[in-house]
Design brief:
The protein is mostly helical. It contains three helices and no strands. Helix 2 runs antiparallel to helix 3.
Length: about 100
């Protein structure tokens, strides 16, 4: 069941508290450098997946409404390649350091 949120502000209070406790637990359990590297890798995975999703949408729906920003199909493709390349570089760096 979704968090109904605070009555006045509509903020998801329970989800925010849970995320805060999770981050606090991770911060107290691991070194800052390890957390920063993991965060960087997760963000690169998310960027890659978002760009692949945009590429799929662009291929399935080449015509977009006039109110939507129109970009060439190579833009999400390049974004996916760059993000995946940086992720592979980071993984290679970890592998070489081990």
């Amino acid at each position: 069941m979704a968090d109904a949120g605070h009555a006045r502000t509509q903020t998801p209070v329970r989800a925010t508290a849970l995320a805060t406790l999770l981050v606090l637990g991770l911060a107290l359990s691991f070194e800052l450098e390890a957390l920063a590297e993991a965060t960087s890798a997760i963000i690169l995975v998310v960027f890659t997946l978002v760009n692949l999703g945009l590429l799929r949408i662009k291929r399935r729906q080449p015509e977009t409404p006039a109110a939507v920003l129109r970009l060439p199909i190579w833009v999400p493709g390049a974004g996916a390649l760059v993000s995946a390349g940086l992720l592979l570089f980071q993984i290679g760096r970890w592998w070489m350091a081990a």
